[in-house]
Design goal:
With 188 residues, the chain is of the alpha/beta class. It has 5 helices and 6 strands. The protein is globular and about 50 Å long. The relative contact order is 0.17. The mean pLDDT is 97.
Length: 188
């Protein structure tokens, strides 16, 4: 089975293909004119917008992932603006660490809203995966991407960027959401 992955983020593609490696599913990228306007107000809305945009140019099974980091002391920011919080991944990390300077409450969570559309364009399944943790004072680790070096997993001494690929995929927001999608597809 082929599913179009409604994303331009190569890290997501890599993680999703690794998580789904034992399933008989090939995730393929959308055509290059895939360029949705993510103007929703929630992860779920943006996930649907991306899925629909990819469906409109393919009319195939489509999976979208809208994800980000929500920090309690910043009232949920960067949230749906995680990819746009500053110009580069390192500047985004620096901005978060600056904004949390002197802050004792550092709890945070990664969220990943997945939307699966069937070839007729209807929502076949959707699920939001959540991974709880907190923000460290100084970044650690080089694996993963995005905010992984500053995200300390709950009940762990490691940041997400200090985990192996398999370890991250087993407990991440993306891993949790995709497992539900794969369970749904197994019933088809
Ligand atoms: P697409 O819209 O093309 O899928 P994007 O990177 O713009 O790619 P999002 O709008 O969903 O995707 O924003 C996700 C951002 O949230 C991502 O760029 C990272 O900054 C952050 N993020 C999401 N998942 C993450 C993870 O597993 N580890 C670290 N940061 C993550």
């Amino acid at each position: 089975m082929e599913i179009v992955l409604a994303t331009s983020n190569e890290h997501k593609v890599k993680e999703i293909n690794a998580i789904a490696q034992n399933y008989n599913i090939k995730f393929i990228l959308p055509p290059s004119d895939f360029d949705p306007l993510e103007n929703g107000t929630t992860f779920e809305e943006n996930s649907y917008i991306k899925a629909k945009a990819a469906w409109e140019i393919t009319h195939k099974w489509v999976l979208a992932d809208d994800s980000g980091l929500c920090i309690d002391a910043l009232n949920g920011a960067p949230g749906i603006y995680s990819a746009r919080y500053a110009e580069t991944p390192q500047k985004r990390i620096d901005r978060v660490l600056d904004e949390l300077q002197g802050e004792e409450t550092r709890t945070a969570r990664f969220k990943c809203a997945m939307t699966l559309l069937s070839p007729n364009g209807d929502v076949a399944f959707s699920h939001t995966g959540i991974c709880e943790g907190s923000i460290v004072e100084a970044q650690r680790g080089t694996n993963g991407f995005g905010y992984d070096p500053i995200f300390l997993l709950q009940n762990s001494t490691k940041t997400m960027a200090e985990l192996s690929e398999d370890e991250k995929n087993n407990l991440s927001h993306r891993g949790k959401a995709l497992k539900k999608v794969l369970e749904y597809l197994a019933t088809k």
